[in-house]
Design a protein that fits this description.
The complex is a heterodimer of chains A (313) and B (303). By secondary structure, chain A is of the alpha/beta class. Helix content of chain A is 36%, strand content 27%. Chain A is built from eleven helices and 13 strands. In chain A, the strands form three sheets. Chain A has a six-stranded mixed sheet with strand order 5-6-7-3-8-9, sandwiched between helices. In chain A, strands 11-12-10-13 form a four-stranded antiparallel sheet, with helices on one face. Chain A has a three-stranded antiparallel sheet with strand order 2-1-4, covered by helices on one side. In chain A, a hairpin with a 3-residue loop joins strand 1 and strand 2. In chain A, helix 3 crosses helix 4, helix 4 crosses helix 5 and helix 9 packs across helix 10. Chain A is elongated. With 303 residues, chain B is α/β, with parallel strands linked by helices. Chain B has two domains: 215 residues, 3-Layer(aba) Sandwich (Rossmann fold); 82 residues, 2-Layer Sandwich (Alpha-Beta Plaits). In chain B, strands 6-7-8-3-9-10 form a six-stranded mixed sheet, sandwiched between helices. A four-stranded antiparallel sheet of chain B has the order 2-1-4-5, with helices on one face. Chain B has a four-stranded antiparallel sheet with strand order 12-13-11-14, with helices on one face. Classes of the chains: A alpha/beta (313), B alpha/beta (303). Chains A and B meet through helix 6, helix 10, strand 13 and helix 11 of A and helix 5, helix 9, strand 14 and helix 10 of B.
Amino acid sequence: MRGPPRLRAVTLIATQSLTKVYGGRVTALSDLTLSVGPGVVGLVGANGAGKSTLIKLLLGLIPPSGGSLSVLGLDPTTQAADVRARVGYMPENDCLPPELSAAEFVTHLGRISGLPRTAARERASEALRHVGLYEERYRQIGGYSTGMKQRVKLAQALVHDPDLLLLDEPTNGLDPAGRDAMLNLIARIGSEFGISVVVCSHLLGEVERICNSLIAIDGGKLLRSAEISTMTTSTDVLAVEVSEGTDELGHRLAAAGLPPTREGRLLLVPLGSAPDAAYDTILAAVADLDLPLHRLEQRRHRVAELFAAREDA
Amino acid sequence: MTAVTMDGVSRWFGNVVAVNDVTMTLEPGVTGLLGPNGAGKTTLLHMMAGFLSPSRGTVMVGDQPAWRNPAVYRHLGLVSEREAVHGFLTAGEFVLASARLHKLADPAAAAAAALDLVEMTEFKDRRIDTYSKGMRQRTRVAASLVHNPQVLLLDEPFNGMDPRQRMHMMELLHRLGGEGRTILFSSHILEEVEQLSGTVQVMVSGRLAASGDYREIRRLMSNRPHVFAVSSTDDRRLAVALMAQPSVAGVELAPTGLTVRASDYGGFTRSLPKIALKEGIRVSRLTPSDESLESVFSYLVEA
């Protein structure tokens, strides 16, 4: 799918004090400074946090009110066409013409990106094959399922062989199997094709699964920008789950000097100063009570905590 | 305590069988309704809400039939998937209108209580078209709760909500279920269903493929070995000891730890702590690999 190796910018997206004010009143982004490296990046934030505004700015569809930004080293405010030639965009809303076939539609968009007729046709059929649409691509889009429409949207973003993909809610409306397939596809685009991907999503579990790093914005400001691995480090709390006798085990552990807190089916045991002894105590208690041990693992931080913590604040 | 019961219910549209011979009972508490697209979830919800007649079988809300019986709406609320609210109204006006339509004795008090329940009191005098998606969704929940129904049906309530709004909505449903209401919600996000409720009804191509607590459903799939990831101070010796157990079908040794396939769930989970203690091995991690709702769901759908 890829041509000869190209030089890749280390910083894909950089913004400096980026501000966007609509109509002089509504501030969508205020003083946003961030930089995005290669890989699969999750962009998360509450509704109205400014994600869509950021995407429009990155594509050069609207001018910023203040500050500067660059995409692949280009300035979208002055070089919008060059940016769009190297960026693939998958919009969130349903925007496909129902009376065209997927092959016609993706070919057309390839031609708009400047590909000659034959190359556009070849590239379109290749992109559609990559997203898993085969014979169906000659059928009218109007008869497609939600999952197939999402695939067409992804294929048109890939048709001109971009260096960067912007995906807005790619799993919206998909059922579990469709979501799974779409997530695998995005992870593959990131790892096998070497295309960097920015994914907007509301589903933090999804972001944890496929992204290397995460950018969270809130109220038009940067909330957090970090590698996913630094946000999911293990805690010094041990989660213990037994299929029966949870209360019994809780009492036993409390008596042994490891008072657990209960969270649903889990018993959360602080490891404290002697972690090895704590493991032994738990195992001995479970064995002694003859309980089925279902889970015993160190708790990990979750990306969701980023939002939960702010709610308390 | 009102339960919803379906007995031998089928619904077809022409030649298309949307729901095929479903028998289920919904108990008080929160239940998740799952299934791939086109499995018949919305048809099922609409029959429970009395919008569609069953082609065969009976749907009862408490002791009353759901179809052609406006009286069920005294006990039932529905939050539909399509978002149809009047943007020019405020939440207060919208919920009050619902209260009036139900001919409640004190509509203003009922509306205020419902708005309070969904934590929308603060914003009730703002027009709905200025709301975020989550606020609109909560307003719709308030409108369907205004007559204090015992049964609440929600079709994809989390669609389009951001993480904070999702957490809010989950807490709300959890609380309502805890109060003894019967709550059924459909969703595609299995992680959320797992967090909100262990009890699920799984539809696959019009049929009820499984119902109950998903962990118990998993135990019933006895033809699939239970897979666990195990780490310990001495993986190799633990592997040898585990292989001697009749409840263990296979052990794989990798630098990161053991993968254990157990053919007998109860046997393995009871014996592992004892074996480790006997051998003097400290188990630092035991993680079930295919016990999540996600894997249970995929087993059900592919079967």
